[in-house]
Amino acid sequence: MKNHSQIREISTLSFNERVLQEAEDIRNPLMERVKFLGIFSSNMDEFFKVRVASVQRRIELGKKPLVDVLATINRKAHALDDRFQAAYREIIELLGREGIRLITEKALAKQHDSIRDWVRSYFRDTVLPSLVPIILRAGFPFPQLTDGALYFAVLMRGSDFPYALLELPGDLPRFLELPNGHIMYIDDVIRYSLNDIFYIFNYDAVAAYEFKISRDAELDIDNDFSEGYVRKMEKVLRQRKGGRPTRFVYDSEMPSELLYLLKKGLRLSKSDPAIGGGRYHNMKDLMRFPAKRPDLLFDVMEPNAHPILAGAERKPMLDIIKQQDLLITYPYQSFDHVIRLLREAAIDPLVSAIKITLYRVANRSQVVNALLNAANNGKRVVAVVELQARFDEQRNISNSERLREVGATVLFGIPSMKIHSKLLLIERAGDCYAGLSTGNLNETTARLYVDSILFTSHGKIARDVAAVFDYFEGIDKNRALPKPTFKRLLVSPFNTRKELYKRITLEKEKGVNGYILIKANHLTDATMMRRLRDAADAGVRIHLIVRTTYAVTPHKNIKAISILDRFLEHQRIYVFGKGEHAAVYLSSADLMERNLDWRVEATFPVLDALLRRQVLNMVQLQIKDNCKARRLDRLQSNKYVLGGAGAHRAQYETHAYFQQLQQKKP
């Protein structure tokens, strides 16, 4: 793959294949395999809305070589969809053997009268009021369909009005548990009840075929912000609903006349991806498949008690942080400590200000609630909210309005540059306390994503964090500010690239005694990859742990793996050097051009020796993984790492490691 764009797109598909491998992996409990099917489906939806849409836009701008890239994407996506359908059929059969039967409308017709009556009542009372059928008629415009929603194309044979569309209700559970323990898709409940919807038409037979349209999720925001950033965002979010199609998926049993009608109405060209598949789509809903069998799920992995904070529930966390740095790694430890700190700061009479960056927060966010409480308690609250966090834009607009209503200062950063850093600053009695995270301050994803947050009162780090917020506030007030300088932080787009280059060069000068370890979600920056390869040429041993997109060519001194298991690996960790003298950084930034040059990111050192050792121990466990690690090679083949002494499953061993830490203070 010589084309760098192709490497990125195919690498993303390769990651999605690793998710699908987890659904296919018989070592995983059966209900967890169902969830991985849902995650795969969700990832593919986003891939077409974002990555494929980007390729299509560049083709329209004259990048003709990308036509081959698009063809490769479509070919690989079709192959993955075939594997998905095969895995789905296998898993549904295995669920049936476990007594978890998923029945269709045809199977329902054979059930006892009481079960059929129960389903009819549920449809009449709960489903029918949400349905809005649209009759398709010649001379009337084709309706605008909602991106990502599920639709039925309805065919009424023998009717004067044979065609209709029906949107499946997105506000109801996708799966219905029947009184006898069986489970039905809401889709099949509607199929069973079609005559109760279209009975006014005179037809010989009626049938429904499912389809879905995905649209370009990019927001086209110009540089004129005179009408206000929030109003402009709301405007372009409405425009997204009519974005160009990026993928059309449909039931392969759909009659050709109906398929032609849909393609014509949706104005699909021959180059637009159209995938004929099974009778169900939006399979991301499998992530919420009813799960009442603990024996078919992963064993519960509770967060371990923090060795410093356990037993110190009555002591303010800021007092603890003033004495020593704290590192919290979730979900191995509890994210509740982050909420606790914010709640304490919100009511602490000595706290005068709380400043925070918000990228993606949970629905009904406890983080936002703590900030609201702080503002109500007279604290100066400054929230830098990123309105361009894709698919979270509307939630961030709503949270911004709530914060402003209680007197908080809400900033939107730099319109042309995403604020992707995860920073917290608390001012208390003349002292500053900083929180720096590798991931979002989101209590929901903190149960699923592996991330770390560092709390410190170290003067230079806290002042650097304060300088970032000063820069944001200066931009908001249209002040001409000098380029900020930092003592300890690496802040994109100002000094991250330059400082990482320096660290790589220092290791290169050590030759065979040099060492570099990088754990990231993405590694695609061309210059960064070239410098890493130059270091490897000089004899430096390099370990790379990359979750998603990866474009480094193979080298004898570079070992590259990707780990996918029950948690999503989300930490960014950069290590330069060996042993106790290693420089260890945590970061919000991946090694992509956008993260280094076009976003505000923060990379921060772990200065405490014991915490530094803790991070090094974590990554060493990952390097040894021979259960869930895949080798990253030129062909994106996703072969599992095998061999070594004994079985090493990094996430389980990491949980055990934190279990040991809780039993003894570092």
- Find the structural class using helix and strand composition: alpha/beta
Q: What share of the residues lie within helices? A: 25-40%
Give the end-to-end Cα distance, rounded to a whole number of Å. Answer: 47 Å
Query: If helices are DSSP runs of H or I spanning 4 or more residues, what is the number of helices?
Result: 18
Under the CATH scheme, the architecture of the largest domain is 2-Layer Sandwich
Rg, Cα atoms, Å:
27 Å
The percentage of residues in β strands lies in: 15-25%
How many strand segments? 25
Description:
The chain has 666 residues and is an alpha/beta fold. The protein has 4 domains: 1-100, Up-down Bundle (Methane Monooxygenase Hydroxylase, Chain G, domain 1); 111-290, 2-Layer Sandwich (polyphosphate kinase like), CATH 3.30.1840; 317-476, 2-Layer Sandwich (Endonuclease, Chain A); 490-662, 2-Layer Sandwich (Endonuclease, Chain A), CATH 3.30.870.10. 38% of the residues lie in helices and 21% in strands. It is built from 18 helices and 25 strands. The strands form 4 sheets. Strands 13, 17, 18, 19, 20, 22, 23, 24 and 25 form a 9-stranded mixed sheet that branches. Strands 9, 10, 11, 12, 14, 15, 16 and 21 form an 8-stranded mixed sheet that branches. α1 runs antiparallel to α2, α1 (4-24) runs parallel beside α3 and α14 (496-510) runs parallel beside α15. The longest helix is centred in the first third of the chain and has 32 residues, at 66-97. The radius of gyration is 27 Å and the shape is globular. It starts with a helix and ends with a helix. The model is unreliable at 1-6 and 219-227 (pLDDT under 50).
